[in-house]
């Protein structure tokens, strides 16, 4: 009897993963015609079975209106479920919702808590977001510490460089530097 229930559990997990994978193919039009509504349906069927990656993906669909109407409260709920299961991308996104008061009350303390949880789970975006937070408080040493931890990911390094370049171009453009105006336009 135990072997039979283990087999059913294994089959259920495979079904959930397949639904998630089909959703990805439909959402991004991989090998099939792009259909965000079908993608949403696949994610919803899989998320109902508690598959963590699909809970996150379904939350993302609700947050950005992919295949459904925007519903920030539902996005918050799904991100929270996935975040509590230690899914670091969901932890970071949940922190962003808390930070911006989307789908929930704005709560900076909870935002920092979830950014830290995601950072502990090696989420580079969370490290970057913590760097931004500490930089906004003018705690440059702390910000530098988080940026340095995130530096292993080239995409994050590029974001930081682009942000700094943008700020410099903007300052120079305000001083009527035509080359800086061109570069600022390129950034936009």
Structure description:
The chain is mainly alpha-helical and 188 residues long. The chain has 10 helices and no strands. It has helices at residues 2-28, 36-47, 52-64, 72-84, 88-100, 108-120, 124-136, 140-150, 154-174, 178-187. Helix 3 packs antiparallel against helix 4 (72-84), helix 6 packs across helix 7 (124-136) and helix 7 packs antiparallel against helix 8 (140-150). The longest helix has 27 residues, at 2-28. It is globular, with a radius of gyration of 20 Å. The N and C termini lie far apart (63 Å). Mean pLDDT is 81; it is low at 1-10.
Beta fraction: under 5%
The average pLDDT score comes to 81
Helix-and-strand structural type: mainly alpha
Total number of beta strands: 0
Task: State the end-to-end distance.
Answer: 63 Å
Taken from the alpha-carbon principal axes, the silhouette is: globular
Largest sheet: none
Run of helices and strands? HHHHHHHHHH
Instruction: Compute the CA-based radius of gyration.
Output: 20 Å
| Helix content, binned percent | over 70%
Defining key terms:
78% helix; single chain
Short structural summary:
With 188 residues, this protein is mostly helical.
Topology diagram in text:
Layout: H1 2-28, H2 36-47, H3 52-64, H4 72-84, H5 88-100, H6 108-120, H7 124-136, H8 140-150, H9 154-174, H10 178-187
């Amino acid at each position: 009897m135990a072997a039979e229930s283990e087999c059913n559990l294994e089959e259920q997990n495979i079904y959930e993963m397949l639904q998630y994978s089909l959703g990805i193919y439909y959402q991004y039009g991989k090998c099939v015609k792009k259909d965000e509504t079908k993608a949403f349906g696949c994610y919803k069927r899989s998320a109902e079975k508690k598959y963590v990656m699909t809970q996150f993906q379904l939350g993302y669909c609700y947050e950005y209106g992919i295949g459904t109407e925007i519903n920030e409260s539902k996005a918050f709920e799904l991100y929270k479920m996935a975040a509590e299961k230690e899914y670091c991308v969901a932890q970071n996104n949940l922190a962003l919702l808390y930070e911006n008061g989307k789908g929930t009350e704005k709560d900076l303390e909870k935002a920092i808590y979830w950014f830290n949880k995601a950072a502990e789970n090696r989420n580079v975006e969370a490290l970057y977001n913590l760097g931004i937070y500490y930089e906004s408080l003018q705690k440059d040493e702390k910000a530098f510490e988080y940026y340095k931890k995130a530096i292993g990911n080239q995409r994050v390094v590029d974001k930081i460089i682009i942000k700094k370049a943008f700020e410099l171009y903007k300052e120079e453009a305000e001083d009527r530097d035509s080359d800086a105006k061109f570069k600022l336009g390129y950034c936009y």
